[in-house]
Specification:
The protein has 7 helices and 4 strands, in the order E-H-E-H-H-H-H-H-E-E-H. By secondary structure, it is an alpha+beta fold. The chain has a single domain, classed as Glutaredoxin. The chain has a 4-stranded mixed β-sheet with strand order 2-1-3-4. Helix 1 links the parallel strand 1 and strand 2. Helix 2 crosses helix 6. The radius of gyration is 14 Å and the shape is globular.
């Protein structure tokens, strides 16, 4: 079973869910606005894929952050920032066993099929 973290109103997340259904891949969806992952959970994702992969720098939330906050983000404090502002998490995030896949393009689809 794959767990997907995203936003219910995100077009990419909806496409991913549709694709999972069409390919009969068992999954559960978690909306990060209503059920924010814990700091430790996000920390594990950061350890697995890196902060640059997980941090959505094109989000409205990112643009609203002050330059002092943006300039002070590191791998160590990034999980806390993402837990505080879950819409900074690039989506969707797919979790299957110990694997973490971020985004939904051809390369990610291939990885998801291997989960």
């Amino acid at each position: 079973m794959i767990t997907i973290y995203g936003l219910k109103n995100c077009d990419t997340c909806r496409k991913a869910l549709k694709w999972l259904n069409e390919n009969d891949i068992a999954h559960a969806f978690t909306d990060i606005r209503t059920e924010t992952p814990s700091k430790s959970q996000i920390g594990k994702w950061v350890d697995t894929v890196g902060l640059n992969t997980l941090l959505n720098k094109s989000s409205t939330t990112w643009r609203q952050l002050g330059d002092d906050v943006k300039d002070s983000i590191t791998e160590k404090n990034g999980a806390a920032l993402l837990a505080e502002h879950p819409t900074l998490i690039k989506r969707p995030v797919f979790i299957g066993g110990n694997k973490v896949v971020v985004g939904f393009k051809e390369a990610q689809m291939a990885e998801i099929k291997k989960m």
